[in-house]
Amino acid sequence: MLEVFIDAATAGSPKVSAVGVFIRGEGHLIKWSEFVGEMDNHVAEFTALVKGLQLAIELTTGMVSVKSDSKVVVDAFEREFIKNPAFKPLLEEALTLSKSFSYCFIKWVPDSQNRAAHDLAGTALRANK
After folding, report:
1. How confident is the model over 80-117, as pLDDT tens digits?
2. Torsion 116-12-42-46 (CA) sign
3. Shortest CA distance to 90 belongs to which of 40, 124, 129?
4. Could you give the strand order of the β-sheet that contains 103-108, starting from the edge strand earlier in sequence?
5. H-type helices in 15-62, by residue range?
6. Which residues are paired to 34 by β-bridges?
7. Going by DSSP bridges, is the β-strand pair 28-38/16-25 parallel, antiparallel, or unpaired?
8. Has residue 49 got a pLDDT over 80?
9. Would you say residue 129 has pLDDT above 80?
10. Which helix (DSSP H) or strand (DSSP E) does residue 105 occupy?
C-alpha cells in the first residue's frame, strides 16, 4: 500500500500557493513540491490531491491511502461532491484518477501527522515568494 500525504501552503496578497506531496510504501519514498502560483488555499489543497494521485499512478495500481489535513478536501472526496464551482473540476479529476487504483481512500490527519507534506509545500512557497 502507498501512503500519499498532501498539503498546500498559501501566503501573501495576492494569495500565492505551493503544494507538497510525500509518498511512502511499497519500497518508495518520494518527496515532491511545486509552486503553483495565484490561488487560494482550498484550490491549492485540491491541486495537491490531484498531483498526489498523479504521482501515485506512476508507482502502483494497487491500494492507495491519501492523507490530508484539509477537511474540505477529505469531505468532498469521500462524498464525491462539492458545491463550490471553483473546486469541482479538480475534484472530478481526482475522482477519475482514483479509479486507476484497486482501492483508493482518503483520511483526515492532524497537522502533526502531515509534517512532511507541509514542510515540502512551505519550502516551495518560500523559495518562490
Report:
1. 999 999 999 999 999 999 999 999 999 999 999 999 99
2. negative
3. 40
4. 28-38, 16-25, 2-11, 63-68, 103-108
5. 41-57
6. 19
7. antiparallel
8. yes
9. no
10. strand 103-108
| 77-98 CB burial, b ≥16 within 10 A, e <16 | beeeebeeeebeebbebbbebb
Q: Tell the residue number behind the cell numbers 498531483, with chain if given.
A: 51
| C-alpha of 10 from chain center | 14
CA distance 105 to 50: 13
Dig out the grid coordinates for 72 from the structure. Answer: 474540505
Taking the C-alpha atoms of residue 89 and residue 14, their distance in angstroms, rounded to an integer, is 22
Give the separation between CA 61 and CA 102, rounded to whole angstroms.
6
Q: What is the dihedral of CA 110, 123, 31, 35, to 10 degrees?
A: 100
Please work out, in degrees rounded to the nearest 5, the angle formed at the alpha carbon of residue 77 by the alpha carbons of 50 and 89. Answer: 55
- Write the single-letter amino acid at 57: I
> CA 7, 50, 109 angle in degrees (round to 5)?
35
